[in-house]
Thioredoxin (Paenibacillus flagellatus), 105 residues
Amino acid sequence: MAIVTTNDAGFQQTIQDGLVLVDFWAPWCGPCKIIAPILEELSAKVGDAVTIAKVNVDDNPESAGRYGVMSIPTLKLFKDGVEVGTYVGARPLSELEAILKPHLQ
């Protein structure tokens, strides 16, 4: 599945079904720029098994505030609308795959 962009208005709908990895980011954030192509690669590998959603914290402060995002990039993993993991900072592809693996079985 392609990476989707969501906002405060659509956030709850985005995380409601299945496994969703949300990237809280901003365009001025250096580590966010580093992780962006890694998330693209991850998306290509996991296909439809995981939705990867991006939330620009500058434009969508409500979602970031509701989920306690204090640093970016912050990745939050949701399963059927329930938060099951939080990961702060850029991560290598292998680590992101390891984070997802237990939830894909």
Summary: Helices lie at 11-15, 30-46, 61-66, 93-104. The domain at 4-100 is CATH 3.40.30.10 (Glutaredoxin).
